[in-house]
Predict the structure.
Amino acid sequence: MVKEIERSGIPVVHLCTVTPISLTVGANRIVPAVAIPYPLGNPELSPEDEFELRRKLIDKSLEALATEVTEQTIFE
C-alpha cells in the first residue's frame, strides 16, 4: 500500500519494527519503531517518559516526511 500511495504523489512514512520488511515492500521513508509488541511505546516507562519517546518518533517521522528522497531511506 505504501508504494501505491507514493505512486499517486503523496509522500508516506512507514513506521516499522522490522526494517528489512519495509525495504522488501518498497517503502521509501522508513522510521524504526520501538519493539514488535509495542511499536509506538513502552509500557515499562513512566507516562512522561513514554510521551517523550512517542514525541521523538513523531518528530523523526515528520522530518522523514519533509525530506526529499530518491531511494529507500531509513531515518534512524
Observations:
- The beta strands are 13-16, 29-32, 73-74.
- The chain has one domain: 2-74.
